[in-house]
């Protein structure tokens, strides 16, 4: 859609495909910078208004770039498969706020009383091994000869 | 084979079971083989070290300063381009870490008010300057030594003349879009500085011998820190991080003698912020072009030391625009980053013109001053360069830091009405005058 400039007609768009997905940055970003994947049609002004009006997040600066999705992989028919392009926005928060992407998969502490799957598996493996071994009274001698 | 072995055992000078030689023998014979050193062309760290040492020796052995500068900036690689007047948020913190500068709010006592051993009366409503006696408001007494009599009325009238001439008396058309700063505050600043400098040159002989530059260029190139090259044919190698400043102050004054040091060379007045992110997150971008080091004139110019720079804030970074965007706290950051970056580039380039560089650190501090303004608000900065050694190796055992003193921005006047200047602020004018009067103690 054409950007509004002074003197031009005010166009309205209903139900635009505007989404914002906060992602963990691949390279470390400064504390006040949040990284988003946004719709390709969103501009810096749209991103700023989105965050300020809908979520009340003070935005100091927005920078965007478009990430090209590669077109090198081939499927079983030897046709090239395109990974979709997407737009990345780096938003610097205002009023000195900081943001750190949370750790979504923290390490769980092992509970020693409740038996876990690993303990069960270890016990099964031990039982199988004992079945394989012969009579302990024979002292390790195999039983394919003798009585 | 046995015969050969036997002959080897009986060779001259081969002593297995001999006794220790008596002390006081003649000097050991000259070595038979050349010293074992690393290769020059191999792809190894030792070879890289040897090439670096050879480069450093070449620069140290250069005959003239021009040759040193030429060798210093000979190798061109992508470098970060720093802009002193930038819209980046909290840029002054990043710039302080790049230039190893500690910021001290307020002005040092020497630059703020020049020391006056006797009573230094000033014919103005005597400000809260130092420990002057209450009789400072009287007319000049015959004080011991030179009486410093500052005619504030004359200076105020000069300033108001310049202001009104540019904004009221002269018929100018409407400024073009986004060119307001070049329309009125620019010419006002040049007019003000030139009239004040010529008025005070009688008082300050250094100003009489100074060089007054209009829209000069100031460039400086340096290396600070290390990074791993991300992509390209040099991927994976550890490279120094290179920076370049290309600055255009509005007006600058260069002098033949250096300003006196403010604090001793090894003083520690603050902390340098440590930033572990890559400079490109500021945002800062890389480009490759000429590595220039320039103070505003070439090396042979007698006025090779800096006195004062005057910077004009561009239209993009004006107060009103920042307030409209909701970035009130960045207003002071703009002034500070401009002061720190421009002054660092200027003082470091002056030091390089004297033959110092990152391997040959400065032996005396270099001091310069700057005034950053947008036409109405003035900030004053004083910079002392204590060290040029910012590369990864030289900064390890370097306890010195560069120091920058700076003020907040204060308005010179409140409102400009037709033919009248309302709410004139004498303090700002006093700071400006004292900046211009700063001179080495011998003069």
Automatic annotation (TrEMBL), chain A:
It comes from the Eukaryota. Residues 125-140 have a biased composition (Basic and acidic residues). GO terms for molecular function: structural constituent of ribosome. It is found in: Mitochondrion. Residues 125-147 are annotated as: Disordered. Its main location: mitochondrion. Keywords: Mitochondrion, Ribonucleoprotein, Ribosomal protein. It holds the Pfam family Ribosomal_L23. GO terms for cellular component: mitochondrial large ribosomal subunit. SUPFAM superfamilies: Ribosomal proteins S24e, L23 and L15e. One of its GO terms (biological process) is mitochondrial translation. PANTHER family: LARGE RIBOSOMAL SUBUNIT PROTEIN UL23M, RIBOSOMAL PROTEIN L23-RELATED. Belongs to the universal ribosomal protein uL23 family. This is Large ribosomal subunit protein uL23m. It comes from Smithornis capensis.
TrEMBL record, chain B:
One of its GO terms (biological process) is translation. Its main location: mitochondrion. Transmembrane segments: none annotated. InterPro entries: Ribosomal_mL37/mL65, Ribosomal_mL65. It is found in: Mitochondrion. One of its GO terms (molecular function) is structural constituent of ribosome. Keywords: Mitochondrion, Ribonucleoprotein, Ribosomal protein. PANTHER family: LARGE RIBOSOMAL SUBUNIT PROTEIN ML65 (PTHR13014:SF3), MITOCHONDRIAL 28S RIBOSOMAL PROTEIN S30/P52 PRO-APOTOTIC PROTEIN (PTHR13014). This is RT30 protein. It comes from Smithornis capensis.
């Amino acid at each position: 859609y054409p950007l509004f400039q002074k003197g031009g007609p005010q166009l309205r768009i209903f139900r635009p495909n505007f989404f914002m997905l906060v992602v963990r940055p691949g390279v470390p970003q400064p504390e006040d910078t949040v990284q988003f994947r946004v719709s390709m049609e969103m501009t810096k002004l749209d991103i700023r208004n989105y965050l300020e009006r809908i979520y009340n997040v003070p935005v100091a600066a927005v920078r965007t770039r478009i990430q090209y999705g590669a077109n090198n992989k081939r499927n079983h028919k030897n046709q090239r498969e395109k990974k979709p392009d997407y737009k990345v926005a780096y938003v610097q928060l205002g009023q000195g706020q900081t943001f750190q992407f949370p750790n979504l998969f923290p390490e769980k502490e092992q509970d020693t009383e409740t038996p876990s799957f690993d303990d069960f598996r270890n016990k099964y493996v031990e039982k199988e091994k004992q079945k394989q071994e012969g009579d302990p009274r024979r002292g390790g001698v195999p039983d394919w000869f003798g009585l | 084979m046995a015969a050969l072995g036997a002959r080897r055992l009986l060779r001259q000078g081969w002593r297995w079971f001999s006794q220790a030689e008596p002390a006081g023998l003649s000097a050991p014979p000259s070595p038979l083989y050349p010293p074992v050193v690393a290769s020059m062309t191999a792809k190894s760290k030792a070879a890289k070290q040897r090439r670096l040492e050879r480069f450093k020796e070449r620069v140290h052995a250069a005959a003239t300063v021009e040759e040193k500068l030429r060798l210093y900036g000979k190798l061109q690689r992508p470098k970060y381009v720093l802009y002193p007047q930038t819209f980046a948020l909290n840029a002054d913190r990043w710039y302080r870490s790049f230039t190893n500068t500690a910021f001290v709010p307020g002005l040092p006592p020497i630059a703020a008010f020049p020391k006056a051993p006797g009573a230094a009366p000033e014919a103005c409503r005597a400000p809260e300057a130092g420990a002057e006696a209450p009789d400072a408001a009287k007319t000049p007494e015959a004080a011991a030594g030179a009486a410093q009599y500052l005619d504030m009325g004359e200076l105020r009238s000069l300033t108001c003349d310049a202001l009104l001439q540019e904004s009221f008396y002269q018929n100018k058309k409407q400024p073009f879009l986004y060119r307001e700063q070049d329309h009125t505050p620019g010419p006002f600043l040049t007019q003000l500085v030139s009239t004040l400098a010529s008025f005070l040159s009688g008082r300050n002989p250094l100003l009489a011998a100074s060089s007054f530059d209009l829209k000069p260029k100031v460039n400086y190139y340096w290396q600070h820190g290390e990074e791993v090259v991300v992509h390209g044919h040099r991927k994976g190698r550890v490279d120094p991080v290179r920076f370049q400043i290309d600055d255009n102050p509005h007006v600058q004054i260069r002098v033949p003698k250096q300003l006196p040091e403010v604090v001793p060379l090894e003083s520690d007045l603050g902390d340098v912020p440590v930033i572990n992110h890559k400079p490109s997150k500021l945002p800062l971008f890389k480009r490759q072009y000429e590595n220039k080091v320039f103070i505003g004139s070439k090396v042979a110019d007698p006025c090779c030391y800096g006195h004062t720079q005057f910077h004009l804030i561009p239209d993009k970074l004006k107060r009103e625009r920042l307030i409209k965007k909701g970035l009130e706290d960045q207003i002071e950051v703009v002034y500070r980053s401009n002061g720190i970056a421009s002054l660092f580039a200027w003082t470091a380039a002056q030091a390089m013109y004297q033959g110092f560089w990152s391997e040959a650190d400065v032996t005396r501090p270099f001091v310069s001053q700057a005034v950053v303004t947008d036409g109405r608000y003035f900030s004053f900065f004083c910079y002392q360069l204590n060290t040029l050694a910012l590369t990864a190796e030289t900064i390890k055992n370097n306890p010195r830091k560069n120091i920058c003193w700076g003020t907040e921005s204060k308005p010179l006047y409140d409102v400009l009405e037709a033919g009248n200047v309302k709410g004139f602020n004498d303090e700002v004018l006093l700071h400006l005058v004292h900046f211009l009067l700063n001179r080495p103690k011998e003069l």
